[in-house]
Amino acid sequence: MRRKKLRHILIGAAIAIVVVVPLCGFVFVKSGMFNVGATSPHTKFTTWLTHETMIQSVGRHSKGIEAPAAFSPAQIEAGFCAYETHCVACHGSAGVARQQWVSGMEPQPPYLLDVTRQFRPRELFWIVRNGIKMTGMPSWRNAMSEQETWDVVAWIEASKALPPQSYVRWRSRARCSRATKIGPGAP
Predict the structure, then answer these.
(1) How far apart are CA 95 and CA 102, in angstroms?
(2) What is the pTM of this model?
(3) 36: how many CB neighbours lie within 10 A of its CB?
(4) Is residue 175 part of a domain?
(5) CA distance 79 to 125
(6) What is the model's pLDDT at position 66?
(7) Among 65, 113, 151, 174, which is least packed by CB within 10 angstroms?
(8) Under a CB-based contact definition with an 8 Å cutoff, are residues 113 and 157 in contact?
(9) CB neighbours of 91 closer than 8 A, spacing ≥ 6?
(10) Domain that holds residue 145
(11) Which CATH number does the domain housing residue 150 bear?
(12) Tens of pLDDT along 25-49?
């Protein structure tokens, strides 16, 4: 008799989970109660859930990528120039603030000063190539070659060992304009 009652309770709970939970989710979505405005920050749970999902996904999808054993000074300089062109506006750098409009993004793009503690070079490569959904981080796959992507990773990796004002110094010396003049098609 007890087993039969327990079985009925379990079946009722299973039906409730299968029917009621999706129905509540549907009603919540259709209600419009969730504020999708970028002026409202995510809840702690949403932040944790999306961040943890991103970390696990990047780790899984980057497994087959082989990072170079070392990066050359030329790669680091090319990476600086690519970072200056494509990344610094959102992510800033040591001594360089992000653009003001970035504060209107939710979630805000992280400063990448210590990103190498959280991600390996192959994972950084994967992130730059593929972007991150629902964060504003675009995929650079169609705008940068694989080599250019590795150059950005080279800069990010090297910048952690450079003095904090290196970015500002390199920028003031117009390293990128000089590098582009030396490139293909230069006189």
Answers:
(1) 17
(2) 0.81
(3) 7
(4) yes
(5) 12
(6) 96
(7) 174
(8) no
(9) 98, 109, 110, 111, 112
(10) 74-182
(11) 1.10.760.10
(12) 899 889 998 888 888 888 899 999 9
